[in-house]
Amino acid sequence: MISIQAVAHNYPGGNQIKFKDWQINSGDQWLLLGASGSGKTTLLHILTGILKPQHGEVMLGETSIYRLSSKARDQFRGRNIGIIFQRPHLIKSLTIAENLLLAQSFAKLPEDMNRVKEVLASLDIADKINNYPSELSQGQLQRVSIARAVINKPALLIADEPTSSLDDKNTAAVLQLLIQQSEINQATLIVATHDKRVKDAFTNTYELL
Ligand SMILES: Nc1ncnc2c1ncn2[C@@H]1O[C@H](COP(=O)(O)OP(=O)(O)OP(=O)(O)O)[C@@H](O)[C@H]1O
């Protein structure tokens, strides 16, 4: 279970952003919906241990993440949270396999080539294992970023605006992939977006006003 309680944040010189309490059961799939500027990125940073809010408590399972030291929190994130950013952010000089192995070693987990192969196969890009990022299409790169997010079997999978630059057909395909990957890896899924087209794919919605 993941929860935020009485969380509020102030950027220097800005107004306070208050977040209503949220409880997420393991394995749930949630949409985090809000207009531009409503605080989605801020809340994702709070949930992933990147931004300590001035007020409130954030629990991931049994762990109150802001009670950890920042070093322990970085390691906790690497092992427990997979993040899919709007752009893939892969290392260009490394192959797809090497990028994924690096995500394992960042989390201080042993490198496991079988797991790399398994994840790439589940995303239907097994044949790209020894290619460099520049040799892949945008859709394939997005699959690699999903692969990197799930490689360490995180308890929580978060996608930040994964569909905003996609047409309707690709939007549906990416959502289906995220939902499928959260199920295969038994991860809780949060998809943050302002894209109302995706609303029907989710039964749970947390809306920022
Ligand atoms: N580093 C910062 N310093 C000061 N104010 C900030 C900072 N980051 C965000 N804000 C402000 O906090 C509010 C919420 O921003 P946030 O980026 O969380 O919104 P968002 O919902 O993710 O928006 P978008 O969909 O446009 O990315 C906005 O009013 C923004 O101007």
TrEMBL record:
InterPro entries per the UniProt record, alphabetical: AAA+_ATPase (IPR003593), ABC_transporter-like_ATP-bd (IPR003439), ABC_transporter-like_CS (IPR017871), ABC_transpr_LolD-like (IPR015854), MacB-like_ATP-bd (IPR017911), P-loop_NTPase (IPR027417)
Alphabetical UniProt keywords: ATP-binding, Nucleotide-binding, Transport
GO cellular component, one term: plasma membrane
GO terms assigned for molecular function: ATP binding; ATP hydrolysis activity; transmembrane transporter activity
SUPFAM superfamilies per UniProt: P-loop containing nucleoside triphosphate hydrolases
Domain of life: Bacteria
Domain ABC transporter: 2-209
Name used for this protein in its record: ABC transporter ATP-binding protein
